[in-house]
Amino acid sequence: MGTLPERKDIPPCVKAPKDLKDPEVLQVQTQLLEAMFGPAGSRIPYIEQVSKVMLELKVLESSDLTEIVVYGSYLYKLRARWMLQSMAEWHRQRPERGMPKLEDAMKALELGPWMK
Questions:
Q1: Quick check: 67 and 26 in contact, CB under 8 A?
Q2: Regarding the domain with residue range 18-109, which homologous superfamily does it belong to in the CATH classification?
Q3: How many H helices and E strands in the chain?
Q4: Could you tell me which residue ranges the KH-like RNA-binding domain spans (predicted)?
Q5: Of 31, 30, 84, nearest to 53 (Cα)?
Q6: What angle do CA 51, 54, 60 make, to 5 degrees?
Q7: Of 110, 6, 115, nearest to 58 (Cα)?
Q8: How far apart are the C-alpha atoms of 84 and 94, rounded to whole Å?
């Protein structure tokens, strides 16, 4: 992945071309993107500003995965990658955590034989 990104608006915290050379790449389930980045990626500029990195999303055609490419200085790339992996894991597990609570609530609402 030695190619430079196609994006024209490189954030000022990313020093071109040095920080654009060896990006960190992680793959995330496409269905988690809206939860992580907001509708239409509205939170991406904020995440880039706070993390001091540039993000680029590439949808993989052959699967339900999206590559998140992180550009920036070495330490900022690693920190942003860890944060994005943690966010993806949290959002992935969120429905699983909610299911036992939902099942308990549904059981509590079940009507006893005397109420039918």
A1: yes
A2: K Homology domain, type 1 (3.30.1370.10)
A3: 3, 3
A4: 11-94
A5: 84
A6: 120
A7: 6
A8: 15
Residue carrying the six token digits 């699983």:
96
Q: Which residues contact 107 (CB under 8 A, 6 or more apart)?
A: none
Hey, what are 89's tokens? 């894991």
- Tell which residue, 28, 1, 23, has the closest CA to residue 10: 23
pLDDT (tens, 9 = 90+) of the chain, 116 residues, equals: 344 445 678 888 888 788 888 999 999 998 888 889 988 888 999 999 999 999 999 988 888 899 999 999 999 999 999 999 999 998 888 766 555 666 666 666 665 555 54
Give the integer Cα–Cα distance in Å for 104 and 56.
41
